[in-house]
Amino acid sequence: MIVSTTTALDGQPVREYLGIVTGETIIGANIVKDFFAGIRDIVGGRSGSYERVLNEARQSALREMSDRAREFGADAVIGVDLDYETLGSGGGMIMVTASGTAVRL
Length: 105
Known about the structure:
The protein has a single domain, classed as 2-Layer Sandwich (Translation Initiation Factor IF3), CATH 3.30.110.
């Protein structure tokens, strides 16, 4: 499955647009990670624990979106957009949404 943020793929014309597909993932950031991320913020630098959580959520949302595109019989998903939101009291949950257009090449 080709997944691209562009609306066209070089040398591969779109034969059929199959519709919008999405994938959503909500992941909780636990209190231990929050504590250590807070310390990291105070002393500077990157928060590896949050980066891992965001990477996991992004990959999960993209995988779910691709699975839905396969159900449509798609070869690719184009025009992919990723959105990130915090949810819950104190922003303890992270939601990642991937959306794009399923197509046949």
